[in-house]
Design brief:
alpha+beta; 654 residues; 22 strands; Beta-Lactamase; 23 helices; elongated; single chain; 5-stranded parallel sheet; Rossmann fold
Length: 654
Amino acid sequence: MTGKKKEMIVIVDDQAANLKVLFSFLQELDFDIRILESGEELMEMLSHTLPDIILLDVMMPGIDGFTVCRKIKENPRSAAIPVIFLTALDEVEDKVAGFEAGGIDYITKPFQKAEVLARLKTHLTLQSKQREAEQALEQQGNLTRIIEKSLNEIFLFDATSYQFVFVNEGACENSGYSLSEFQQMTPIDIQPGVDRAFFMERILPLQNGQREKIIFETIFRRKDGSTYQAEVHLQQTEYDSKTVFAAIILDISQRKQMEQKYQDLVERSSDLITQVDSRGNILFSNHISRKIFGVAPEKLIGKSVFQFIHPDDQKLTTAWFKKCLSRKLPLEKIENRQVNMETGAVHDMLWTVNFHYDDDEQLVSVNGIARDITLWKQAEKQLLLSEKMTCVAGLAAGIAHEINTPLSGILQSIQVIEMELAPDSLQNLEVAARHGLNLPAVHAYFKEKELDYFLAGISSSAITAAEVIKGLLDFSRPHKGHFSTHNLNELIRDTLLLARSDYTLKKQFDIHNITIREKYDPACANVTCEATEIQHVMFNLIKNAVQAMLKQEGQKCFLSLRTQKTNTVIRIEVEDNGPGMDRVTRSQIFNPFFTTKEVGSATGLGLSVSYSIICDKHHGKIWVESVSGKGSRFIVELPLSQNGSDTETEKKNE
C-alpha cells in the first residue's frame, strides 16, 4: 500500500444493465467508482466533490448528456474534468455535437472491456500529466524540475524579446532542436505561416491582463522540416525574476487524425451536409454541393443558403425557418427543392436541420443534412398514379356491370313506352281500336292516375345514373391539383356514393349490408382543399374499413363518418367496429408497401399515399386510434386555411 489516493471515476447512466457491465470492467482495478443515474445527480455531486474522470451517457431522461457536459465545462471549478460519452449513436453529427459540448472521447455501446480500459487509462494519464504540469507552473520553486520531467512539451520564452529561455527534454526530443539552439530562436521561428504581428496579437490578452490563460491550436515545424499539430496552453508568469510566457504543448496529431476521419466521412457521404451562420450564410458544405447547387464547396462560403431554394419554395421555407427560430426548436425536418445554378436542374431534398443556440438562446449556427429524394418523388408520383388506377379499375367494373346495364334498360323502356303510346302512329291506333281503346283517353287516364309522374321518374333515374357515371369519370381523370373552396360534407357524400357503386366492395365485401352513420358539421361547408385528392383519401379509408369489417362473420357492421370544425382545424373521422389493430400494425400502417391483406391482393400504398396527400400537400395530420378487437378510428385534420400553399402546390404539381 502506497497510500496514494485512488482515482475517482463517476459513471452516469440511467440503464442498470450498462452500469453493471461497466462496474464489472472497472472493479478489478484500483479505482474509486461512483455510480449515478441522472445528470441532475451528477451536477449535485460536482457542487462538493470533483472526480478524476466522468463516463457520461448521452441519452438520459431529464437533462441529456450533451447539456450536462456543457454545464460542466461552463463551471470553472469542474471545467478541467475529462468527460467521455457513452453512446449508441454513431452518426457524424452526433459525435461532432459531443466534441462541441466539451467531451474528449466516445465509448460506443455495446461496451468492449479492452476499449473501455484503454481509453480510461489514456485519458487518466493525460489528465494526470496535464494537472502535474499546470500545478508545477503555479509552484515556481519547483518549476525547473517539473519542466524537465514532464512528458508534455513545455516552453518558456521571454515576454519582451520572445526568445526561448528554457524548453524541457520532451520538447527537444520531439522537435530535434537542442536547448542551446532553442535559446537562439523564438516561437515564431517554429510556426510556419505565423509572423510577428500575428503572434503579438495572439498574446495581447495575456499581456494586458484580459486573460490568465489562452488555449489555441497551431502547427509546429521540427528541425527536419516535418510538422505536427499542437494544442498550446499559454499563460504569463515569473521565472528567474523575469516575466516570461509558459507554454504547455500537447501533440494532438492523433486527435486531428481522428477528426480527419470524421471529416472524411462527411466528404464521402452521399448526402449534402452544410453549416450556416445565424444569417443563413454558408460556413461549410461537403462535396455534394457541387451536384446540388452547381457550386464548389470553397466558393459557397459566405453565400446565402436561401438563394439556391426553388423560387416557388422560398416563401414556405422562410416561414418554416422563422417558426423554428421563434420557438427555439433544436431539431426539425423540411422538404423543399434546390436549384443547380450551373445546369438549372431541380432537386427534391429532405432536410434534417439542427439549430445551435448560445446560453442567451441566440442562434449560433445551423447544421443541415439533406438527402436527394428526387428519384423517390418521381417514383412516388408513379405509385400514386398506380394506386389511383387500381381504384379506377374497380369503379370501371362497377360502371359496366351495375350502372350501364340498368341505364340501358331504363332508356329502352322509356323509348318503347313513348313509341307504343304515340297517338300519331296508325299501327298504335289500329291496335288500340281492336281493344276498344282511345289513345287520347289513355293519355288522359295516365295523367289522372299520375302515371306520367312515374314515367318522369324513369327519366330522373336515367339522369341520376348519368351523374354517377360523370362523377366516376371525374374521379379517374388526371387533375392539376388546384386548391379551391369546397363543401367537405358533399365531397364525403359523393365519395360514399362512389364506394357503394364500386364493384369489388359490392360483390366481394357487400358494402350495402353495412350500417353507415353520417354526422356532418354544417360549418364544414366551405373548406379549402384539393377536392379529388380528399375524395381519394376518403375512398381509401372507407374501402379499408369495409374490407376489415367484413372479415368478421356473424357481427353487425357499422361505419361512422363525421366532420367537425374547431377553432384551429377541420376534423374528419372514419370509424368502424372491425377487428382493430395491435400496436405493431398501428406503428407501420402508413409505411409504403405495408399491408395486412393477402399477398397480391393489395399494393400497400393506399394509406401511404393518403398520408402524403394530407400531411405533405394539405399540411394537415392523419393518424389512427385502434385497439385490437375493438375497431379503428382514422382521424384527419386539415388546417382552416392553406396560407398561400395552394398556389405553391399547384405550381409544384404542374
